[in-house]
Write a structure and sequence with these properties.
This protein has 90 residues and is of the alpha+beta class. 26% of the residues lie in helices and 42% in strands.
Length: 90
């Protein structure tokens, strides 16, 4: 079953390669959507795909790349948007 998650990651997650690592992980799992920095210092992600792969990605978001210091991850399920690829936005 295809699902769509909106994910916000808080902590030291900007300037540490979080977006690039999230993009690689999402592509590895076959997910579609995008990742971008928020002005608040958090990282915002919309990801969709197989529910099992999405759950695996969400677990990864709690850890992130080695230089990240994730403090909190919030997510909610939303309607599927039918993205065609996963994009790293500025």
């Amino acid at each position: 079953m295809i699902k769509h998650f909106e994910i916000t990651v808080y902590g030291k997650v900007q300037g540490v390669g979080y977006r690039a690592a999230a993009g690689k992980k999402a592509e590895l799992l076959g997910l579609k959507g995008f990742v971008m920095n928020n002005f608040s210092g958090s990282v915002y992600i919309e990801a969709e795909g197989d529910s099992g792969k999405l759950t695996e990605f969400l677990s990864w978001c709690h850890v992130g790349p080695s230089f990240a210091e994730v403090e909190n991850v919030m997510f909610k399920e939303k309607p599927v948007q039918n993205y065609e690829f996963f994009e790293i936005r500025r």
